[in-house]
Design goal:
The structure is a homodimer. With about 210 residues, chain A is mainly α. Chain A folds into 2 domains: about 50 residues, Homeodomain-like (Arc Repressor Mutant, subunit A), CATH 1.10.10; about 130 residues, Tetracycline Repressor, domain 2, CATH 1.10.357. The first copy, chain A, is about 65% helix and about 0% strand. Chain A contains 9 helices and 1 strand, in the order H-H-H-H-H-H-H-H-H-E. Chain A is globular and about 55 Å long. The first copy, chain A, starts with about 20 loop residues before the first helix and ends with a strand. Chains A and B meet through helix 8, helix 9 and strand 1 of A and helix 8, helix 9 and strand 1 of B. The first copy, chain A, binds a DNA duplex (30 and 30 nucleotides) through helix 1 and helix 3. Chains A, B: InterPro entries: DNA-bd_HTH_TetR-type_CS, Homeodomain-like_sf, HTH-type_TetR-like_transc_reg, HTH_TetR. Chains A, B: Keywords: DNA-binding, Transcription, Transcription regulation. Chains A, B: It comes from Actinoplanes lutulentus. Chains A, B: This is TetR family transcriptional regulator.
Chain lengths: ~210, ~210
DNA sequence: CTGCCTCGTGGCACATTCTGCCACGAAATC
DNA sequence: GATTTCGTGGCAGAATGTGCCACGAGGCAG
């Protein structure tokens, strides 16, 4: 579970192994991590609706006031995995070669996210259940959300000389590919797939956007 | 604006013109409608974040307790138009001929929703702004949301003898078509389209799902 | 018409989330 | 070693959302 976390948020340093964490930083991470882990544990245990921020704080041994400095809302803790996957996706997009097509770049990045999801299948399954069981949680899908599609489109557009992110074909590519990923994600977590990654390829390749 | 509302929620009677509204029903509708209109007006005026439930209740002349009987949350009032469009879509799907393909049925229904959106363009534009300006509102898109995709898939599946809603091709059709609609919706509200409906057709037809 | 039942309403108390403000103390800096 | 930075927690308060109960008007027999 630990591997799931942190090393992505503070703008991953591309300088090699710059692990000069100051004590303050470490304590901060500890606070945040402690809160996340306590929250997830309690959510899985009792369900999102039956866990209060106070409960989480008691378990993580921090003050509610501190909790709300790290997370804008209780829901925010749940979205953490989504953020993690989004970061993964955008990182891969940023690193992708300008040679390959938009679709290829996007799909390669999505395969990375898919691999990640499979690696953390157990935790994601649990969180998916948490989300489904709750009446108040508005995040029904622990997966890429349409909110981030605009960002992805921008990144893809940035790879090109013209950099036009308003092109509807580009946005359609992003939207439909994200939809495809959600379909796969659903399949992976509801039925046994003999070869999940092959299944992802099948779904991603099933969509064609006419030029 | 009034036309936008009500006549859809209490399971539209297919019996012709069954307008035997009792006084109680009328008062109920009046309460709800008054709240919605007051809320929208205030939201557009001051922005979602700067309007409290108490404000809405004062404007609509109802008690906060009553407000929360009609709406699960303040956000719920904003989602009203989305619900309206979803109802429109599902109604058309239910009424669609079993002869035509899934894609055709869905796209025809989406064209209806598109027409509806264009009719109420002014109001939807305002609500779109409200959603964008807010920091707390989680509904970033006043359009069809992925949450309802499962329902749409079920309806489409129900038109067929086997009724298999788990078929990933079907879900992919729904997901990508919904994404296409969002792309169109975005275009319509951000740039001038000479022929919006033609544009919708173009986008919907741009997607192909291989058999 | 009359009495009874239904049900929309509002008041009240309360749990809960989230924020602004301030002060303490440890970590970082000079 | 003195000063500044900053993470933390306490407190008060705004705001959302819910359970419970009582009132009163609409609906329904008789």
């Amino acid at each position: 579970m630990r591997r799931f976390l942190r090393p992505a948020s503070p703008a991953r340093r591309h300088q090699k192994e710059q692990t000069i964490t100051t004590l303050r930083e470490r304590k901060r991470e500890q606070s945040r991590l402690g809160a996340v882990e306590a929250a997830w544990r309690l959510f899985i245990e009792r369900g999102y609706d039956h866990v209060t921020v106070a409960d989480i704080c008691a378990a993580a041994d921090i003050a509610p006031r501190t909790f709300h400095r790290y997370f804008a809302s209780k829901e925010d803790v749940v979205v953490e995995p989504v953020r993690r996957m989004t970061t993964l996706l955008t990182d891969h997009l940023l690193a992708s070669s300008p040679e390959i097509s938009d679709a290829d770049a996007l799909h390669q990045a999505q395969r990375e996210v898919g691999r990640f999801a499979l690696e953390h299948r157990e935790l994601l399954t649990a969180l998916r259940l948490v989300a489904r069981r709750s009446n108040h949680l508005r995040v029904s899908q622990i997966a890429l959300r349409p909110e981030q599609e605009a960002e992805i489109a921008t990144l893809l557009a940035a790879r090109r000389p013209d950099g036009d992110a308003t092109d509807w074909r580009l946005r359609l590519l992003v939207g439909s590919s994200t939809a495809a990923f959600r379909v796969w994600y659903e399949d992976v977590f509801t039925s046994e797939q003999p070869d999940p990654m092959a299944h992802l390829d099948t779904i991603l390749n099933a969509i064609t956007i006419s030029a």
